[in-house]
Amino acid sequence: MTEYELFVEKKRPCGEDIGAEKSVVEIDIRCPDEYVRHNSNFPVIEKTTCENGDIRYVTGDGRGNMEKYTFTE
């Protein structure tokens, strides 16, 4: 298992960051892919590995609902 700091941002169709839900938690997981598949309400649109090693997922429904998950070791 790996310990991650997870930043989650959920945006709704209103399109403004003011209404976005944001949270940060520390979690121990084996695989960020599995975590996102089991905890997101939407399919993965994009997965990115940043230069600093963070892993970022964007999920959404194509109608304005989006969730971003950023995993930092």
Could you please describe the fold and organization of this structure?
This protein is mainly beta and 73 residues long. The chain has one domain. The protein contains one helix and five strands; from the N terminus they run E-E-H-E-E-E. A five-stranded antiparallel β-sheet has the order 2-1-5-4-3, with helices on one face. The longest helix has 8 residues. The radius of gyration is 12 Å and the shape is globular.
Layout of secondary structure:
Layout (H helix, E strand, L loop, with lengths): L1 E10 L9 E9 L2 H8 L4 E6 L5 E6 L5 E7 L1
Antiparallel strand pairs: 1-2, 1-5, 3-4, 4-5
Brief overview:
This protein is 11% helix and 52% strand. The protein has one helix at residues 32-39, and strands at residues 2-11, 21-29, 44-49, 55-60, 66-72.
Pick out its properties.
mainly beta, five-stranded antiparallel beta sheet, 1 helix, 5 strands, 52% strand
- Give the number of helices: 1
Strand content: over 45%
Give the neighbour order of strands across the main sheet. Answer: 2-1-5-4-3
Largest sheet: 5 strands, antiparallel
Shape: globular
Instruction: Measure the end-to-end span.
Output: 11 Å
Q: Could you state the order of secondary-structure elements as H and E?
A: EEHEEE
Averaged pLDDT: 92
Q: Could you say how many structural domains there are in total?
A: 1
Flag low-confidence runs.
none
Tell me the structural class: mainly beta
Give me the count of strands: 5
Rounded to the nearest angstrom, the radius of gyration is 12 Å
